[in-house]
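Researcher: I'd like a structural prediction for the single chain below. Treat it as a standalone chain; there are no partners to consider.
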Amino acid sequence: MPGPLIERYRERLSLAPGDPVVSLNEGSTPLVEAPVISERVGASVYLKLEGANPTGSFKDRGMTVAVSRAKGAGAEAIICASTGNTAASAAAYAARAGLRGVVIVPEGKIAIGKLAQALIHGARVIQVLGNFDAALNMARVLVERYPVTLVNSVNPHRIEGQKTAAFEVVDVLGDAPDYVLLPVGNAGNITAYWKGFREYHAAGRATRLPRMVGAQAEGAAPIVNGHPVPHPKTVASAIRIGNPASWEGATTARDESGGVIAAVTDTEILSAQIRLANSEGLFAEPASAAPLALLFRLVREGKIEKDSITVVVLTGSGLKDPDAALNNVEPPIELDGDARTLAKVLKL
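Model: Treating it as a single chain, here is the predicted structure.
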């Protein structure tokens, strides 16, 4: 079984020599072929299943490095602002490290599964009026005045950990793919992937660089619109962010790679989520379906080359935020009868 992510890639990470390894054996997530989707779009599509990480999202990659560095530096507490996945991950790794965990979330705007994770891991959860951006501003002010370590993606050690997903993609495929599509919320992940691909390319581990393609939700698309969104709205809560902290990193990844960042509608997101589950047997949260929805659109527009190798990053498990999915599928059939009645209902 693969060991801690830090042990596999420590020479490429930003840790100090004496830092401990705070790990839940994150990383080494599957890169799964998607035969049905591949046939539909005319390309070789692979799905990077980041929902297979310990807390169910890609956030664990960055959190293991950030919390290991915080503990090594003598921190007693960590804090983050979050729409959900960062809160769950920070709470888990704080517990693992024996540190106090504090998470600030927008009131009423966090999926119940993610909130439950943060609470069960013992973090102090603070709900504030306003959106994610207000929560992050509050966390930043607290860190400036008190001995608390911020573990949002503005922490460079988070980016260092998250870049290892790009290493894994190259390690499995033997080279970088032609395209990498992923959701863009606070924009740390697209920044991290591009950093990872560039580092592997510079080291001779990859002969080429991919085009980076980011998907924002139409109601929360500040990078696409070119200005912050004061009141972001989307069913994809993980990317419901109006002023990304890693905005510059995302546009750099887009521009240097020759890629694109575009917006998709909530209708497209939910349709892609259901199609993914029905055709490939994978249940991803709405934010994860955004890049898949964008892939379908770009193929229709002729902007994805046929026969290309394309990786779609599924950043979080669908079990994190099941409400949206349940609202868009047929409810269970209620039956009062025997097997013959069942066979009739099933049209056997």
